[in-house]
Design a protein that fits this description.
Distance between the termini: 80 Å
Structural class: mainly beta
Number of domains: 3
Number of helices: 5
Strand content: 35-45%
Helix content: under 10%
Number of strands: 29
Length: 442
């Protein structure tokens, strides 16, 4: 008998770095999911690379046998992966065609997929904090962990803006009028918002960073130094699991937290699953320091080699995210009139690193600002730096001349070595030779 596999679901890892065209547009401005997928197909036809260039997908080693017992396979696709399931084809009385899982699967069943880094580039070109209090990995899910999901996105809600929080350049927050903003520092070191309007309003963010090992360092990331810290871990019922207290005369740079003595209570397992396996870490310190976050502990999924982990359940809180329908068959099917229902395609939109471009002369000479570029660049010392941060993209981008002249291509960084100045601006140096666009001071 021939083996029959059908798509159970698909993940599209949509990254601004790869999906931005030379004119600065990308598919994030499109609000319709199907049209975004159509635009993605167009980029594939143009042979544009996607994030699967730097990320591979696989089941955790310890779960390979269980996934095989479920009849599952993970295969790479353009910008993501697809999970296939072995099925039996069933033709119903009305001539509709459905697919029943070949093997018996628990209801609900759990599926973990690792996003394995092929190199360290994803951490450089992605919009993520550099200084983080905990070394947590992203955990994306079709379940509400902890926030309700908005189809087709596998990400948590973005936090409201907090004036007391220390933001890094490019960090996302929702302002008082419920508008999504990305924040940056200007040339005077003042924090400024830039609105993200229309289209996609859900992106991978720091609230998705939840997956931790049992032992790790905690690093305070507030505006002011702290010399005292009190740390409490609570379970999903707000019961205290473990506490730590630290006090010293010098500012605390990091403290070591060890939860290995609570492994049976904390680690995801057959008896501890999600969302019950979510814990909350509550941290307070002197000088007004506070930090509250959700955390999940896993031994089989956490590794420095992983960029993220995706967690799926076959049936979840929001039925739009079901992998298996109420009738026990997979979502993919065909009705009696020949109309197809495809397997769900879930999206993880990722913003690019938001950095200023700083142009320097290759021979160390002082650059002069060409007036046609003064709507994009400003002179600082011997260099030219972009007035506003620029989302990193794989391709050169067009900059319109001041006064309505023709657009010109400007070079992107060749090296992604990030630097930070005294104004908290993250920037990338771009050496350029003498040219009409980049003249030097005589």
């Amino acid at each position: 008998m021939d083996l029959l596999y059908k798509t159970l679901f698909e993940i599209k890892l949509m990254h601004e770095y790869f999906l931005t065209k030379e004119d600065g547009t990308n598919l994030f401005s499109e609000p319709d999911p199907q049209k975004r997928l159509d635009l993605l197909d167009q980029l594939y036809a143009m042979e544009r690379p996607a994030m699967d260039t730097d990320i591979g997908f696989d089941f955790p080693d310890t779960l390979h046998q269980k996934m095989q017992d479920y009849g599952l396979k993970v295969v790479p696709t353009y910008g993501g992966c697809r999970v296939l399931i072995r099925v039996n084809k069933v033709v119903l009385a009305d001539q509709s065609v459905v697919y029943k899982p070949f093997f018996s699967i628990p209801d609900p069943a759990e599926i973990f997929i690792l996003f394995v880094k092929k190199n360290n580039l994803p951490d450089t070109y992605s919009n993520e904090r550099i200084a983080r209090s905990v070394p947590a990995l992203y955990l994306f899910s079709n379940e509400s962990i902890p926030d309700a999901r908005q189809f087709p996105f596998l990400v948590n809600s973005i936090s409201p803006f907090d004036a007391g929080f220390f933001y890094e350049q490019g960090q996302l927050a929702v302002d008082s009028s419920s508008k999504l903003q990305e924040y940056f520092y200007d040339g005077a070191g003042a924090l400024q918002p830039r609105a993200i309007t229309g289209g996609v309003q859900s992106f991978a963010n720091e609230n998705d960073r939840m997956l931790l090992p049992l032992r790790f360092f905690y690093r305070p990331t507030g505006k002011n130094p702290v010399t005292q810290l009190d740390i409490t871990l609570n379970d999903s019922s707000a019961n205290q699991v473990k506490t730590f207290s630290f006090s010293q005369t010098k500012p605390v740079s990091k403290v070591f937290l060890d939860f290995s003595d609570r492994a049976e209570q904390l680690l995801l397992s057959d008896t501890i699953s999600l969302p019950a396996g979510i814990f909350s870490l509550h941290v307070t310190g002197n000088n007004g320091y506070s930090d509250d976050r959700y955390v999940i502990f896993s031994k089989s999924c956490y590794s420095a080699k992983n960029w993220a982990v995706a967690y799926f359940k076959t049936r979840v809180t929001n039925p739009l995210f079901h992998l298996i329908a109420d009738d026990g068959w997979i979502i993919k099917r065909q009705d009696g009139l020949g109309n197809h229902t495809e397997a769900p395609v879930f999206e993880i939109p990722v913003k690019s690193r938001y950095g200023n471009f700083r142009y320097t002369n290759t021979n160390g000479k002082e650059l002069n600002l060409n007036p046609v570029l003064n709507n994009f660049l400003v002179k600082e010392d011997k260099a030219l730096i972009s007035l506003l941060p620029v989302p990193l993209c794989k391709y050169y981008f067009l900059v319109p001349e001041t006064g309505g002249g023709p657009s010109r291509y400007l070079p992107n960084p060749k090296s992604y070595e990030m630097k930070k100045d005294q104004f908290q601006r993250i920037y990338f140096d771009i050496p350029v030779p003498v040219s009409d666009m980049f003249p030097v001071v005589p």
